[in-house]
């Protein structure tokens, strides 16, 4: 019997096809192994072909926009939003609009074209997380921005136009719908229970254990109860943290769990394309009791280009309890 | 300057990249021309390979599940939901779930493997709409069901696993998130203005004309103000109609506008893959003053598999005003 499950935060319903539960080998998606050759604007030596870097991790002896860096953050060469100008919020009858003001940046995670987040050093993953944090902290100062969306598209199927490992961020003058909904829903739960809904979920999941993939001292990785996609994985801080920051000024534990999960996903699903999205509180309400920042990782295994787009309703052929087992048992 | 536009019903924001506005020829997507040869379970003569038909349009002289039909409705051979059983709604701590009870049906729109909704006769399109209506009316009698999602995936990229032209329906014991949100949002608008928000939009669009692709006596086709996708098109009744039904017992006008729009899309975008989804009021509140049924057509031109999934935030490289012009001027 298939199951209908509801995600308690977003309120979306998902069909979990328990009987025809799909195993990892049932999914055919292009493996994201790096190819050799070809010109890459993100490789060292080609710094002059990109917009000038905003920040870079590099020895003090090397000048900006020259080789020697270990990580670079740049404006996107083809930005979806424009950094200069006024918002000019306006209406057109029943419609609302504003100028497309915002920042669109690229985080080049490594100088080595062959590496991915799962194969680079753990220290390099820490640096990626620091880059996210530094950019968030800097963009927060611009009063035009209400939210920064940090995400990664790994693989062409997942929307990456360049193979060289990178993440992106988009600073927005509005709070995106999904984030706003999550905030409202978790606030409503808090208003009724005086508890964070994510904290309750984490506590229940750690008790039952059946959807817990891995935990370390500070974070837990789990298959959500009502995942949209096979092998969807969330990483959350075990303690209540409403926004993304380095506890005790360290991202070591977060880098450890993130890289471990990505290695497990690579192992079980043969380096699938994936997206991840950082969910954190909007700038104006960073410190709060009801929202809990987390990272949602969505492997791109099924062609979800169908009715799911328009209906907010999903069919997932792999129960999260089975996905958990496969990931947990992966020999990495 | 790019624009940030808000869809007034869903509340989602979309970036419209005005400057690098993409023209139809900028999109490369696989053309959905029919291939010849190969076994097709939906072709006449192969009726025994499908589950028995629920209804069919066929001469009285032909027995069920034999050739001679012009349209067939069948249970999906691999249903996402199961028709028999109880809902058994239950909780698991903070989570909610129920048995996956529902109907999953396929509407085979034509016996001719080579035809699509845009190339079959207009009368055949009318029959497809009648089939939707008959199934809705029948499934409404099952008190377990709250909503029927009717949709079409045209082309493999859009999620179709078989080429032979067909639509699908899923009867659900819950109202999907997107529908519930649209109902709540339009009810809120009505509570404040005593008007249907869709009626207001239609009136404004017909006045300005800049996003109106086509209208006939009863329906209008327009590019929404804040489309998620290039060439996204909505078809709506011009008068207030809260749920999908045949006014004056005829679907002739609806078939005319639907087929015309699909022909224009095929012409301008070279038979792209697409999805359409029927948005109608849930069974329990079919007759109401605030919601307005409509059809949303979403050509699959861009690889939207990126961060849009998780953020509810979209980047659309084609302004709807330009899409409107291209579609309006298509010589069909």
TrEMBL record, chains A, B:
Its EC number is 2.7.7.12. Keywords: Carbohydrate metabolism, Metal-binding, Nucleotidyltransferase, Transferase, Zinc. Residues 197-307 form the HIT domain. The keyword Nucleotidyltransferase applies. PANTHER family: ADP-GLUCOSE PHOSPHORYLASE, UDP-GLUCOSE--HEXOSE-1-PHOSPHATE URIDYLYLTRANSFERASE. InterPro entries: ADP-glucose_phosphorylase (IPR053177), GalP_UDPtransf1 (IPR001937), GalP_Utransf_C (IPR005850), GalP_Utransf_N (IPR005849), HIT-like (IPR011146), HIT-like_sf (IPR036265). Its cofactor is Zn(2+). Pfam families: GalP_UDP_tr_C, GalP_UDP_transf. Gene3D superfamilies: HIT-like. It comes from Dissulfurispira thermophila. Binds 1 zinc ion per subunit. This is Galactose-1-phosphate uridylyltransferase. Zn(2+) binds at residues 40, 43, 113, 164. The keyword Lipid metabolism does not apply. One of its GO terms (biological process) is galactose metabolic process.
């Amino acid at each position: 019997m298939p199951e209908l499950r509801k995600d308690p935060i977003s309120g979306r319903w998902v069909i979990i096809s328990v009987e025809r539960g799909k195993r990892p080998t049932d999914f055919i998606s292009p493996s994201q192994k790096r190819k050799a050759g070809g010109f890459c604007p993100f490789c060292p030596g080609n710094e002059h072909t990109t917009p000038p870097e905003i920040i870079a991790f590099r020895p003090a002896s090397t000048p900006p926009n020259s080789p020697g860096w270990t990580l670079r953050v740049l404006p996107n060469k083809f930005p979806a939003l424009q950094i200069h100008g006024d918002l000019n919020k306006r209406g057109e009858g029943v419609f609302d609009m504003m100028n497309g003001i915002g920042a669109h940046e690229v985080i080049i995670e490594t100088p080595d074209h062959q590496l991915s987040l799962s194969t680079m050093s753990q220290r390099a993953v820490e640096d990626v997380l620091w880059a996210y944090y530094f950019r968030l902290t800097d963009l927060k100062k611009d009063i035009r921005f209400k939210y920064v969306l940090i995400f990664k598209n790994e693989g062409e199927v997942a929307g990456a136009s360049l193979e060289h490992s990178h993440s992106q961020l988009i600073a927005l003058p509005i709070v995106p719908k999904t984030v706003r909904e999550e905030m409202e829903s978790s606030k409503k739960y808090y208003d009724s229970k005086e508890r964070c809904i994510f904290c309750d979920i984490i506590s229940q999941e750690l008790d039952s254990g059946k959807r817990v993939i891995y935990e370390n001292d500070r974070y837990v990785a789990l298959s959500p109860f009502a995942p949209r996609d096979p092998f969807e994985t969330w990483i959350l801080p075990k303690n209540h943290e409403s926004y993304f920051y380095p506890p005790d000024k360290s991202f070591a534990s977060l880098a450890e769990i993130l890289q471990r999960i990505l290695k497990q996903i690579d192992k079980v699903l043969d380096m699938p394309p994936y997206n991840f999205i950082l969910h954190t509180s909007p700038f104006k309400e960073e410190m709060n009791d009801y929202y809990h920042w987390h990272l949602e990782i969505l492997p791109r295994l099924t062609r979800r280009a169908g009715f799911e787009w328009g209906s907010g309703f999903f069919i997932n052929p792999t129960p999260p309890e089975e996905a958990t087992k496969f990931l947990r048992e992966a020999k990495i």
